[in-house]
Amino acid sequence: MKIKNIYMKKRSNPVKNYFFILLAAFALMTSCNSDVINTNSFYTFTGETVSTFCKKNDKLSIFYRIINESNNYNMLSVYGHFTCFAPTDSAFNAYFAKKNIKYEDLTKADKQAIVNNHIVRNETREYLTIDFAAGALPTPNMSDRFLVISYSTSNLGTQVILVNKNAPIIVKDNKVQNGVVHIVGQVVEPSEDNLQSIIKKQPDFKLFSEAFELTNLADSVKEIYDYSYKDPSPGVDRTNVVGYSVAVIHTKKLGYTIFAETDDVFKAQNINNLADLIEYCKQYYGSQDLSDYKSRNNPLNKFISYHMLNRQMSTNAFIYSGPNTSLYAMDQRHEYYETMLSKRLIEIKAGNKINTQRNESFVGVNESKSNLDGMNGYVHTLTKVLVYDPTVMENDVLNKRMRIDAYAIPPQLTNNNLRWNLDDIRTIAPDFCGDYLKINPACKIILWGSNSWDDHQADEISIRGWYDFTLRLPPVPPGTYEIRFGYNAVPWRGIAQLFIDNQIVGIPVNLSINGSDPTVGWISDTETNDNGLENDKMMRNRGYMKSGNAIYNSGYSTTLRQAKNDLRVIVGTFTFQDYDYHYFRAKNVEREDGEFHLDYIEYVPVSYIDKETRD
């Protein structure tokens, strides 16, 4: 129960990071036939619910009728956090004309689907336009699809917010008792296209589309769910696994991201046809199986594979964008992902810069032509040709400290909306993440986050009980690396024996002792004469480091380097001869109630350690 009390306290310490200015001018909803309404309206405090707002607004009569006839009126009348994108009557009339149907042709299932497509339901919050960012909303709609937000400019020069690229918000932020209603000028229709058909439909992706079809890689990105996954707790909505309730994830969604060059981008590299592209690919991927485009060793196949990720990410989901990064370090934010070219990484930095070199050259993402969404993923447009150049990647892009958040490693956590999800406490089955994170059945897994806790990117994987887990680390180029992991030292942590590639490393590590323990030797930088330089050396000699200055606790306005509870353990130095996976394993060797805090891992080439900053 002690653990329960501690965790409930840390969950109940929310800190609001944004303050909203309420505008005094509100638009009146008149009964005229025009849908032109004052788009400067921000907040309308009506004392109503989503249901009653739609009922009383005569411009939303069709949407209200659909809500009522699909038996959703009561749901949208109760307490909750709903974000509703309500189409006008004119929008529905245009929708019926396009489909060549009448209202009476809609079945009850059609009406339910329409409601689900336009409603986002969240455990703790609704989404005002001030919360929007270009890309997908953090929570899927009730059809379990993510709505994409983009921005455009009207003929009058004013900003227009679009939902799924084509539904303009014409009246925003109508606050009601159980959420917010945004009135839209077009019916929102989630794409039914697969990623291959999206690429094929784009007129400026002709060469990429041809190569994509030849390699037959479309078969690798067509599934939506992993139907081989067996739900360990069917029919159970919540379970008590740690002294309080957590949400159980019952299904395993799949998802994918594809980066693609337009024909103009190819032409800028003198690539005008398939033969030119194959010759270009041979420079980086060799000449094996040249006549067999479906072979994973074929250079064209490798080229396309390096453009693919087995996780569904809009452009605002590549890197962490929450408040738990120090302000000075915002442009340093980065993430590493394994592509579908076996054992090869890409780096994405702030600004959606791919594989940034020291000379500041990078492959960019064209935001205006990206977030092309399909049933199970996104297609994004590149500004340059993307290749894995071993010389550039090994000697430059990846020749640095690589700090990798634990949530970024298993794609299952991204595809099932578990990463950066601060709205609920969740649990997964031990085999949910496959080979990426293997966990023995004797332990308990908690996924949660908070802006008021000392976590990299505000979330953590808590592993409890008699755990014995193995995290598959991303593959790195051959070389000698120092491997570390970061954690927050508190009394309920346990003692863990560490392994790399299943080889025991050192003596067990006590994760409950903080920096003030003599075996760690942490001293605040402000209490030293050299800003902590000598103390850093002394701690390294003991196998520890302070946490990074770039990692921030926005709830308490401190960096993790300033906290004696936030440490890095130096696991050891390891030489790897080949590109391959490496495995970080931890085993509980003390007591059942000792917890492991799985937060982030660092790979650091030993030649880079002297150049490393405190970030």
Give the CATH topology of the largest domain.
Jelly Rolls
| Low-pLDDT regions | 1-45
Helix count equals: 13
User: What is the CATH-assigned architecture of the largest domain?
Assistant: Sandwich
CATH superfamily of the largest domain: Galactose-binding domain-like
Radius of gyration: 26 Å
The profile of the biggest β sheet is: 7 strands, mixed
Structure explained in plain terms:
This protein has 615 residues and is an alpha+beta fold. The chain has 3 domains: 18-184, FAS1 domain, CATH 2.30.180; 195-395, FAS1 domain, CATH 2.30.180.10; 400-611, Galactose-binding domain-like (Jelly Rolls), CATH 2.60.120. Helices cover 18% and strands 28% of the residues. The chain contains 13 helices and 33 strands. The strands form 8 sheets. It has a 7-stranded mixed β-sheet. A hairpin with a 4-residue loop joins strand 28 and strand 29. Helix 9 crosses helix 10.
